[in-house]
């Protein structure tokens, strides 16, 4: 556990228990608009069925806290370790990711019974004195469930957004909020120099935000605004998806193989662009930041503009000077360890380090990030072709 920082956000047992209940309730609130059938669908490998998310985050607390530290805990169902383990080799065999949508059992009802069983055991456990190491794992569990809350929302959107009826998830959403035309897109100038990168403080952070270290940056400029749908439509109308000059080789192959010609969820209907939102299929709001963009598309758009994407270090140094949080923002940085990074022992060490290859870093947060979950040093990461997250574009030069 050497990569975990001391905690000061929770001072006593009731703080921890209340925080646990608050986070667990929010996951269930996300699922309230769903029909039972919605819980089971897995349209593509990157999208997990909602019922699997609900079971997996429950498994995390059962496995890493109750089974490990509560001597009187009675396991709900020993087969659930195989069903709800995600990628922790330390914890044994598991259902192949592509098969999560084939699990008609355990039922949604069974999984909520499992969740209730674990929550009651956790409430009893957290009313006792717990060692510091358990508190640290508990805080990881909180942040882990918050990550899955965002995944739940993005997976639900993919499930419903690929249904030919385009059913709404709810009657209104943040995606509907009207935005006045953004002010002129100014650029902030950052002077060359040596800057400190990475988390610094006593609160929680993930191990991939450590260790704090110096990085040399040359002079650069970065946009104060995210690229809007209107601006991205200009790229589309100029045949940006057909001009190989702006694309990485892998990106150009991806465009041709998958016949990509617009952001995910965009549909051209009777001469007008629509996109699927949580409130259903609506006309594209041209003032909104463009969303559901792959790294390939983000880099191609930047090239078309004669600019580039910022590196993650440039983004981190400049982020205090502009608003962020509407979209996860692609950077031009590969997901790699910081100098001095070391993995924690055991299963917790599998949390981030094993994914540091073939992925690109995103910075910021999004409209569906859980409250108080992100920070300027937070490092998200995905493969460059993925678009189902709330991803967007900020330019640099």
Low-confidence stretches: 1-10
User: Considering the protein shown, what is the CATH homologous superfamily of the largest domain?
Assistant: paralog of FGE (formylglycine-generating enzyme)
**Might you state the CATH topology name of the largest domain?**
paralog of FGE (formylglycine-generating enzyme)
Shape: globular
Number of helices: 9
Beta-strand segment tally:
11
The level of helicity is 25-40%
> If you compute it from the alpha carbons, what radius of gyration comes out, rounded to the nearest whole angstrom?
22 Å
The pLDDT mean sits at 93
Structural class: alpha+beta
Name of the level-1 CATH class of the largest domain: Alpha Beta
Major sheet details:
4 strands, mixed
How are helices and strands ordered from N to C? HHHHHEEEEHHEEEHHEEEE
The CATH architecture assignment of the largest domain turns out to be: Alpha-Beta Complex
Fraction of residues in β-strands: 5-15%
* Order of neighbouring strands in the sheet with most strands: 10-9-8-11
Counting structural domains, the number is 2
Q: Whole-Å distance between the termini?
A: 40 Å
């Amino acid at each position: 556990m050497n990569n975990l920082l001391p905690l000061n956000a929770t001072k006593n047992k009731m703080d921890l228990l209340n925080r646990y209940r608050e986070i667990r309730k929010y996951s269930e609130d996300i699922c309230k608009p769903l029909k039972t059938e919605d819980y089971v669908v897995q349209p593509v490998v990157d999208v997990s069925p909602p019922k699997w998310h609900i079971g997996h985050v429950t498994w995390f607390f059962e496995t890493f806290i109750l089974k490990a530290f509560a001597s009187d805990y009675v396991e709900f169902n020993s087969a659930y370790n195989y069903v709800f383990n995600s990628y922790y080799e330390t914890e044994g065999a598991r259902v192949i990711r592509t098969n999560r949508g084939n699990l008609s059992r355990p039922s949604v009802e069974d999984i909520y019974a499992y969740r209730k069983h674990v929550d009651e055991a956790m409430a009893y456990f957290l009313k006792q004195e717990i060692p510091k190491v358990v508190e640290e794992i508990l805080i990881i569990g909180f942040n882990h469930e918050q990550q899955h809350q965002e995944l739940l929302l993005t997976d639900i959107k993919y499930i419903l957004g690929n249904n030919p009826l385009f059913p709404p998830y709810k009657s209104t959403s943040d995606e509907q909020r009207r935005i006045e035309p953004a002010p002129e897109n100014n650029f902030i100038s950052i002077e060359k120099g040596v800057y400190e990168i990475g988390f610094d403080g006593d609160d929680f952070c993930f191990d991939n935000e450590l260790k704090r270290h110096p990085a040399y940056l040359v002079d650069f400029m970065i946009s104060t605004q995210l690229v809007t749908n209107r601006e991205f439509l200009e790229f589309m109308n100029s045949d940006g998806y057909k001009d190989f000059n702006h694309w990485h080789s892998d990106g150009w192959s991806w465009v041709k193989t998958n016949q990509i010609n617009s952001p995910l969820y965009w549909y051209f209907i009777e001469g007008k662009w629509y996109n699927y939102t949580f409130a259903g299929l609506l006309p594209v709001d041209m003032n909104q930041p463009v969303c559901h963009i792959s790294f390939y598309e983000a880099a191609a758009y930047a090239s078309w503009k004669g600019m580039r994407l910022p590196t993650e270090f440039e983004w981190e140094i400049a982020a205090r000077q502009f608003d962020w949080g509407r979209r996860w923002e692609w950077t031009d940085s590969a997901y790699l360890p910081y100098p001095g990074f070391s993995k924690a022992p055991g299963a917790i060490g599998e949390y981030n380090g094993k994914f540091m290859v073939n992925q690109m870093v995103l910075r910021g947060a999004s409209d569906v990030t859980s409250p108080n979950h992100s920070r300027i040093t937070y490092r998200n990461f995905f493969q460059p072709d993925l678009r189902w997250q709330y991803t967007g574009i900020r330019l640099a030069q």
